[in-house]
Amino acid sequence: MYKLAVCTLLILSVTAIDVTNSVWTSHDQKAFAQIKQSGWGNFILNFGELHLSTGGILSELNTEIAKLIDELDEELAEVHHQYARRTDIHNREVSRLEQEIQDKEREVFHAHDFYDNVLIPQRDRFAAQLEQLQENIAQNRKTLNESTVQRAKDHAEFEAQVAEHNEAIGAIDESLQLLSQLESPSLVQIQKVQKNLTKIQQSLKRHSTFQTFIKTLLEIAVEANFADQGALREILTAFNNLRVQLVDSLNQLTADEAEAQKDFEARVIQLNQEHAEFQRAVIVKTAEIEANANKIEQTLDLIDTLHADLDTLNGQLQAENDDYAFATDVYNATVAEYNKELNAAHQALDLLNQPRFTDYVKSQLKGAF
């Protein structure tokens, strides 16, 4: 109907109502001017003039024009219907996209929260624990080395003390042998005994425990009359007592050394066991660090993917809003145009039913003849 009307409008456009005719009032001329701004209004006036000038009946004209207006109303109703459908689709699509965006933003938040508050603190904690384990290993080896060095020093000191004790005991044994042979000692023998005492004193100079015995022996040896058997027995007793003390001391040194060596060996075993535990802990912690690094990489990839998905959804939402905004602009412009044409059509129909329009057509026909 619309195409047919357009074609008819083009044909009728060569005919124009003479608004300057005397039958028209100034109000009519103003109404004509408004109607002529509308294609449909202008078409209806020209169609009405043609219909009446060819002997057509006004009621038939009204019926045809009413049909035309009804068709315009139906077309406008279809425009409203299609826009309502488009609006419904838009609202559902926007609701869907906004929900997906909200869900995706929640996933992004949880991924960032997991990265920031779980993985990164875990990474730092693992690194600190590994560093502590490495420090423990270094301290363990340092302790073992220090213990080994100290044990060597202590053993060397023990051997030195054993040598000193053995030397002193040897000197005592030599003195006892000399003294046991004395009946009327010569000056040379007495000097030999005194020399051995000095040797004993020098050997045990670091052992304050024996200094009293040695001092007593020296005094006796200097002042004693070796020809006096009582004095001689006193010296022999003193030498024997000193020898007993030295042997006891040597035995204690040997026992202490054995205990120290045992403690050292136990300490070495303990340190090596601790070292092995630290090494195993390092292996476990290194695996945990590697797993954490892999999880961090996976989470960062996930975050990138989620952001890309979010950008896509936001782009789809923006595209839908832009498309709907364009559809709304087209809808508003179309409705406005339809309303303009319908309003002009109704005005034209009203004008056609005015007696002045019929008079105008008749005057035109008389003028033609």
Order of helices and strands: HHHHHHHH
**Assembly level:** single chain
Rg (CA only): 64 Å
Portion in helices: over 70%
Determine the mean pLDDT: 81
Structural class by secondary-structure content: mainly alpha
Distance between the termini: 35 Å
The stretches of 5 or more residues where confidence is low (pLDDT under 50) are 1-23
The total of helices stands at: 8
Shape: rod-shaped
Q: What does the largest sheet look like?
A: none
How many DSSP-defined strands?
0
Approximate strand percentage: under 5%
Keywords: Coiled coil, Signal
Question: What can you see in these coordinates?
Answer:
Residues 1-16 form the signal peptide. Residues 58-150, 261-323 form a coiled coil. Keywords: Coiled coil, Signal. The chain has 369 residues and is mainly α. The protein is built from 8 helices and no strands. It has helices at 2-12, 26-36, 39-53, 58-180, 187-203, 208-223, 229-352, 355-368. Helix 6 (208-223) packs antiparallel against helix 7 (229-352). The protein is rod-shaped and about 190 Å long. The model is unreliable at 1-23 (pLDDT under 50).
How is the secondary structure organized here?
Layout: H1 2-12, H2 26-36, H3 39-53, H4 58-180, H5 187-203, H6 208-223, H7 229-352, H8 355-368
Helix pairs in contact: 1-3, 2-7, 3-7, 4-5, 4-7, 5-6, 6-7
Q: Notable features of this structure?
A:
mainly alpha, signal, 369 residues, coiled coil, single chain, disordered N terminus
